[in-house]
Specification:
The chain has 81 residues and is mainly α. It has a domain of 55 residues. Helices cover 49% and strands 0% of the residues. α1 crosses α2. The two termini are 20 Å apart. It comes from Bifidobacterium jacchi. This is DUF3046 domain-containing protein.
């Protein structure tokens, strides 16, 4: 997933204003309390950030990829440890 696709999903799933607010303000527990903006800025894969955000916000798998999107595969070396 590219960062551009990440932001398209943020806008579609959460709506642009709310999604952008979440990206700046929501501390993601699974990413050591970093916000979306911090995690992306530090090089965390957008798909990992997306899944963590959706998990934390309770977005079901069926709804997190929006309309017309397929879940991209996770990069082989990505882990949340």
């Amino acid at each position: 997933m590219r960062e551009r696709e990440f932001w398209q999903l943020v806008d579609e799933v959460f709506t642009r204003p709310y999604g952008r607010s979440l990206a700046h303000d929501q501390a993601l527990v699974a990413l050591d309390g970093r916000t979306v903006m911090e995690a992306l800025g530090e090089g965390v894969e957008p798909r990992v950030v997306w899944n963590v955000l959706c998990d934390q916000m309770g977005v079901p798998d069926a709804d997190r990829w929006g309309s017309g999107h397929n879940a991209p595969p996770l990069p082989p070396s990505v882990g949340l440890a």
